[in-house]
Amino acid sequence: MRLLAIETSCDETALALVECSGDLENPRFKVLESVVASQIPLHRRFGGVVPNLAKREHLKNLPLIFEKIGGESLKDITDAVVVTVGPGLEPALWTGIEFAKGLAKRWKKPLIGASHLQGHLYSFLLERKESLEDVFPSASLVVSGGHTILLILQSLVKYKKLGETRDDAAGEAFDKAARLLRLPYPGGPEIEKAAKKGNSEAVAFPRPMIYEKNYDFSFSGLKTSLLYHIKQSFKADWKEFNKNYSQNGIKLENTDDVAASFQQALVDSLVYKTTRAAREFQTKSIGVSGGVAANSLLRNSLKKEAKKLGIAFLSAGKKWNTDNAAMIAVAGYVNFLNKKRLKIEAQPNLGL
Ligand code: KG4
Ligand code: ZN
After folding, report:
1. Do 193 and 245 form a contact (C-beta atoms < 8 A)?
2. Which end of the chain has the smaller Cβ count within 10 Å, N or C?
3. What pLDDT, in 10s, does the model give residues 160-172?
4. Which CATH architecture has domain 2-123+320-338?
5. Where in the chain is the domain with CATH 3.30.420.40?
6. In this structure, which topology does domain 136-283 adopt according to CATH?
7. Are 278 and 305 in contact (CB under 8 A)?
8. Is the omega angle on the peptide bond into residue 87 within 30 degrees of 0, that is, cis?
9. How many CB atoms lie under 10 A from the CB of residue 161?
């Protein structure tokens, strides 16, 4: 069946047309169209996402992208419409939901609700050709701008949350650190870029909660350490530095080293606990998804750990880890196969 999926939960307006087939043990996907209109340049000057601006942009972009991928002519080749119902920014979610409702009604097609987090979790399926026979149990890490969750998957639809962040999400920590380092929003890719030129052993940042027995994470202490480090570096100039908070003001001399050290500390905590879960639960794979999974250090470190354990590494290419609508089609298809119905209304706090 062909699904037309719509994603507007945060600052990307995305539409995709995906051919879906197979069952829960062997689902198959072929992305026929996928367009993402990013609002990053718009939100950049505010240093983060502004919900009402996001809503306005979604309203503007949705009809444009819809036309771009075929518009009304898609009616005859679409079997159902899928839309993200949560979690996310409420005003942003509603724009996609209203658009999807309108389409489904006009075209007389079923409307399927999907979870944004399940979209991330299942994104590895977009590029997978083999069946899921040798995948479960899987230790799976979902790391985005709003979430950091570690799960054990027994199957695509049976899973247990092992732990999550107690404060900032991993992506949020990258974004806040970038702000402190005077790097643009979103911070993850910027820190990664700077880190490539830096020495990751230059600053000894803490690895939060690494030795605690639970599977939770915490990144606010790491952010505070970074702030102290910057404060100390500037000493007398601190007031001047702090005044230029969101401008292209004074920068640390060794921004690249600090970025590399920060990235290493954050990635170490994620990798340590994910690998420990894989060992303890004797999983057959390690998975990672969400925007932060686009980070090469995180991907390569988890891949290396999986190799050491002799198990598979599951992650789609970088393009499918940051927000897109193809992953929402996958989540919609899994709900369809699993006969799970989500209420078609904005659910800003929908959990996994
Ligand atoms: O999944 P996503 O696109 O949106 C949410 O669902 O939140 O994730 C966005 C987050 C941002 O915090 C961004 O800084 C982070 O993912 N991110 C990265 C990288 N690319 C995006 N973090 C680290 N390294 C990257 N290359
Ligand atoms: Zn996301």
Report:
1. no
2. N
3. 999 999 999 999 9
4. 2-Layer Sandwich (3.30)
5. 2-123+320-338, 136-283
6. Nucleotidyltransferase; domain 5 (3.30.420)
7. yes
8. yes
9. 13
Tell me the residues surrounding ligand 2 (ion) with CB < 5 Å.
144, 323
Ligand 1 binding pocket includes 192 (Cβ within 6 Å) = yes
| Predicted confidence (pLDDT) per residue in 185-222, tens digit | 899 999 999 999 999 999 999 998 888 899 999 999 99
Whole-structure pTM value: 0.95
What is the rounded average pLDDT of the residues 253-260? 94
- Cβ neighbors of 138 (< 8 A, separation 6 or more) are 152, 153, 283, 284, 285, 286, 287, 314
Tokens of 48: 């983060």
CB-ligand 1 contact for 290 (6 Å cutoff): yes
Q: Is 160 helix (H, G, I), strand (E, B) or coil?
A: strand
- 17-57 confidence digits (pLDDT tens): 999 999 999 999 999 999 999 888 888 877 778 888 889 99
User: Which two structure tokens, joined as six digits, stand for 172?
Assistant: 């949020």
Adjacency order of strands within the sheet including 159-164: 159-164, 148-153, 138-143, 285-289, 312-314
Position in ligand 1 atom list of the atom nearest CA 263: 23
Residue 245 scores a pLDDT above 60: no
